[in-house]
Amino acid sequence: MSSWCINQSKWKELFSHVLDLFQSIKKVIGLDGCFLKEQVEGELLTSSGRDANNQGLFESVKDILPHVDHRQYARQIYVNFKKDYIGLEFKKLFWATTMNCVEGDFKRHIDAIRKLNPSAYDNLMSKEPQTWCIAYMSVRYVCEVVENGILE
């Protein structure tokens, strides 16, 4: 699931790009938008989709909206990670890495994973930690949920 806040002048252009993107992806679950009022004005466009065959939904959205923050759900990354890296120690280190608010703590935990298994480290680093670790997320957001998505 991804959400973006855009101004009214970009709405039609962006909506057209998003529709083009979703036409290239077979199974789209939802696309919705609403107007924001009060302190934050503009529109909020939300898309929910499945990309089970890794057809590039995340990368495609980054191409269309390069100036917005993109997040991945740590729970989904962990589900895939634990298929190859089994055990309580990996689980504890993964969640410690994900939930720390300080970059130094993230580095300490990810280094512990590297010492435990270098390929586990490479696997996690290839998933762009800045998109699923709290330590790298912007402080301008009130929501720090990284572990789960609305579809799950």
Give a quick summary of the entry.
By secondary structure, the chain is an alpha+beta fold.
Provide the descriptors you would attach to this structure in a database record.
3-stranded antiparallel sheet; 6 helices; 152 residues; alpha+beta; 2 domains
Summarize the structure in words.
α1 packs antiparallel against α2 (57-64) and α4 (88-99) runs antiparallel to α5 (103-116). This protein folds into 2 domains: 2-64, no CATH class; 74-136, no CATH class. Strands 1-3-2 form a 3-stranded antiparallel sheet, covered by helices on one side. The N and C termini lie close together (10 Å). It is 45% helix and 14% strand. The radius of gyration is 17 Å and the shape is elongated. The mean pLDDT is 76. The chain is built from 6 helices and 3 strands; from the N terminus they run βαββααααα. It has 152 residues and is an alpha+beta fold.
